[in-house]
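Hey, I was hoping to borrow your eyes for a little while. There's a protein on my desk that I can't quite get my head around. The fold is given in discrete form, as structure tokens running alongside the sequence. I'd be grateful if you could look everything over and explain what you see. Here's the protein in full, and shout if anything looks odd to you:
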Amino acid sequence: MFKAIGTFGRYLALMGRVFSRPERMRMYFREFIAEVEKLGVNSSGIVILISLFIGAVITVQIKYNIQSAWMPQWVVGYTTREILLLEFSSSIMCLILSGKVGSNIASEIGTMRVTQQIDALEIMGVNSASYLILPKIAALMFFIPVLVTFSIFFGIIGAYMTCWFVGIMTATELESGLLHDFNPYFVLCSYIKSLFFAYIIASVSAFYGYTVEGGSLDVGKASTNSVVSCSVLILFADLVLTNMLSA
């Protein structure tokens, strides 16, 4: 218990340094652009691929296991849309990204720590916490709504693939469910939740990498711990945010 409180205190202290006033905005903006490409754009492929297959799998499962003669034809499309909007494209996709992006951030900063590159930045008078972590947080929070949009769009494309290639239902039947009682607020909820999740992934992973002590083996442990912590915090935040946004 006391160890968890101490870790949380060190996290808050580090975030205080991270969000201090940047020394040179041009330098931070250049790092921000580089992080957008590295953390966001390079993650688009896996988001698109997973969303395509998940959208198809959800549609097939609902069609074969939930829909019956007593239910209208639009149930499949309606349920698929709600799952994609409310949970998968924000919460589950961010859980997946915590493994890819979070481990990348933790290992990158952790390697800089054990090779004394961070100490060199401190000697030069650079706020290393802000310089290394702030562009990552800003980049991920900036690009995560784009990834959520990709996930929703390609998840729906995956649902249509079951109509075009598997033939379990017609595209017209699926479309009637996708359009039935659509609430744009659910899309906004996905974006809001994803912003919180993006901050968790970037800040927690950076904390584990920045505070690593030891050698290369400890960097690997820090990377693993960051993924586990991010996953738990995302699930907890998902529960809290869902209650707040649904109230």
